[in-house]
Amino acid sequence: MSDVRYGMAIDTVTCVGCAACVVGCKLENDVAPDYSRDWIYTLLEGQYPTVRMTIQSERCNHCEDAPCVTVCPTGSSHYGPGGSVQVNPSKCSGCKACITACPYDARFIDPQSGAAEKCTFCMHRLEAGTPTTSCQEVCPTKSIYFGDLNDPGSEISEVLRDRDWYVLKPDAGTKPKHFYLK
Amino acid sequence: MNEFTNTRHNHLIDPTMHVWGWEIPVYLFMGGVVAGIMILAGIRYLRSGSERPSTAMALMPWVAPIFISAGMFFLWLDLEDPFNAWRFYLTFKLTSPMSWGAWILLGVYPASILLAWLTTPEAIKARFRETLLRIPFVGGVLDWAEGRGGFLARMNIVLGASLGIYTGVLLGTMAARPLWNSALLGPLFLVSGLSTGAAFMLLFRLEDSERKALGRADMGLILVELAILGLWMVGLATGGQAAQGALSVLFGGPYTAAFWTLVVALGLLAPLFGEWMEFKHDAVPGKGTAVLVLLGGFALRWILVFAGQATGWVAEIAMR
To answer: What is the CA radius of gyration of chain B?
Structure first.
């Protein structure tokens, strides 16, 4: 278990849903207008005065058992560094099987290239030596944790050990590596 | 009360997924007809003995390469980067039904064209033979095929079945779309393909005995298709929350009317009744039931492709 295994955790207690992560990602990754690789999902439960609001910053879950990789006919969707899920646009024909295969609807077609696109865990930053993702960097409440799940000393490993957490749609069976702290 | 909002508004993803447009059901329908024709033509060849088929029946295998080319053209139109289509043929991905399909489609061509050449009446062949033989290798290939009718017929059955099943497995292996996520989709598309293939043949001028055989076969195929559809729905209805939610699009949801009228009533029950009456009165099956079967097969794929995309996992948050 010495391999790096990247994961992300969102603190739903401190997240205020400001969408800085959405804007930060668009700027960093030059995401096409009207599209986004991450988004804010807000759930409001109950009736006043007994209401409860949960805010989630969502993106590709970089699943360990990723159906997008399984169905890709050309090998464009693949497991990249640290078990992240990546797309090689030069191999993508735009068949959209990965889009229908994703239970999180995290993918879309980039209108410029015609290739499937989604969150990369800012792999270009990591490869350049910056250990943070852009969404994490711009989060004003420091609600986004990113790091190596296999390193017991990493911040994300510590926070997942100390706090209760959940993942989205666990029954879809994809083993997501994107966690929500409660 | 629960209320949710989502800031994501990606084109064709939100609010409901619609990334696969009309091209996909049209391809699936044409692929199904081709699968049916290949299997039925293969069976006919193996069983015919010295019996001579009608000219239309003898020429029927030619429909396969023509229709599959049209179908693949529509599939190609659906690609967002069509000039990367060749990437399909640089690899084989064991876990990707679409990769299987790409290679199956390549196999369809030689098998169906060579069987078609063998069954084409000599008078027609004579007109083309001289020109064809001028093309390099063609003479050798045709000579090779000449004594191998049985093998080619069997290959048509195997490849036709693979083609019919894969189109269903392609959708059935998508766990993210609970309406599709059933192993029964493979057999469903295969049987529906056989039924539409038989119906397509009935549109042409066949011998009475051929029409009767196809009509009788189609009755059985429709019954099997109804059984598979029923089992598929039972599977979803007794599945988890996501499966039950998906099935509701056909029970009170947006596709209810279209599915029950176009697919079940007009596409399956009406032609079944028509074929049964023809069989009972020993009448020669006409084209009316065939047209209904074709419309039903098309509607089945149209509705499944669109309704399936709109289904997903319940976005419930596992809090507390």
So the answer is: 22
Q: How far apart are CA A162 and CA B268, in angstroms?
A: 59
* Calpha distance B181→B186 (Å, rounded): 11
Instruction: Please tell me the distance in Å from A32's CA to the nearest CA on chain B.
Output: 10
Domain residue extents for chain A: 6-66+119-181
- pLDDT for position B317: 47
From the list B17, B80, B312, which residue is nearest A114 (CB)?
A: B80
Inter-chain touch B96–A76, beta carbons under 8 Å: no
Which chain A residues are Cβ-neighbours of B312 within 8 angstroms? 103, 105
CB-CB neighbors (< 8 A) of A39 in chain B = 6-8
- The better pLDDT of the pair B300, A172 is held by B300
For chain B, domains (ranges, CATH) are: 23-309 (1.20.1630.10)
Residues B2, A43: C-beta atoms closer than 8 Å: yes
CATH 3.30.70.20 assigned to A6-66+119-181: yes
Closest CB from B4, B13, B313 relative to A41: B4
pTM: 0.94
ipTM of the predicted assembly exceeds 0.95: no
Rounded mean pLDDT for each run of 10 residues along chain A, 182 residues in total:
87 95 96 95 90 93 97 96 96 96 96 96 95 96 96 96 94 94 93
pLDDT in tens, A101-147: 999 999 999 999 999 999 999 999 999 999 999 999 999 999 999 99
CB neighbour list of residue B297: distance below 8 Å, 6 or more residues apart: B29, B32, B33, B192, B193, B195, B196, B199, B267
pLDDT at res. B3 = 83
Give A118→chain B minimum CA distance, Å. Answer: 11
Contact (CB, 8 A) for B250 and B256: yes
**DSSP string of B143-191, one letter each residue:** HHHHT-HHHHHHHHHHHHHHHHHHHHHHHHT-TTSTTT--TTHHHHHHH
pLDDT at B50 exceeding the cut of 70: no
A-chain residues within 8 Å CB-CB of B17?
99-100, 105
Residue B319 pLDDT: 45
